[in-house]
Amino acid sequence: MKVKVGIRKPSIKKSIAARTSIKRQVVQRAGLKMPKGYGWVRDPKKFAYNKIYNRTTISFWDLLKMLFKSN
């Protein structure tokens, strides 16, 4: 699997879809959530990919926050 490096391109469509997902709402309301950090139990391959992806890329919004951070 190839992992992206650099700035992630923001997608408003995907952002809204993730927040309004029926699947996510069912899991949240049913109390089937796993504790934070237990992703490796559910899907180890996806956990490893996401860990590398999140370390090698930066969000466009995080980049803006860093640029306009007030000290």
Describe it.
Strands 1-2 form a two-stranded parallel ribbon. The protein is mostly helical and 71 residues long. It has one domain (6-67). The chain contains five helices and two strands; from the N terminus they run E-H-H-H-H-E-H.
Q: Walk across the major sheet and give the strand order.
A: 1-2
Please describe the biggest sheet, giving its number of strands, its sense, and whether it closes into a barrel. Answer: 2 strands, parallel
Enumerate how many helices there are, as a single number: 5
Tertiary shape: extended
Helix content: 55-70%
Beta-strand fraction estimate: 5-15%
Low-confidence stretches: none
Written as H for each helix and E for each strand, in order along the chain, the element string is EHHHHEH
**How far apart are the first and last residues' alpha carbons, in Å?**
40 Å
Give the tally of β-strands.
Answer: 2
Instruction: Report the average pLDDT across residues.
Output: 86
The Cα radius of gyration reads 15 Å
Structural class: mainly alpha
The quaternary state of the protein chains shown equals: single chain
Number of domains: 1
Summarize this, please?
This protein has 71 residues and is mainly alpha-helical. The protein is built from five helices and two strands; from the N terminus they run βααααβα. It has one domain (6-67).
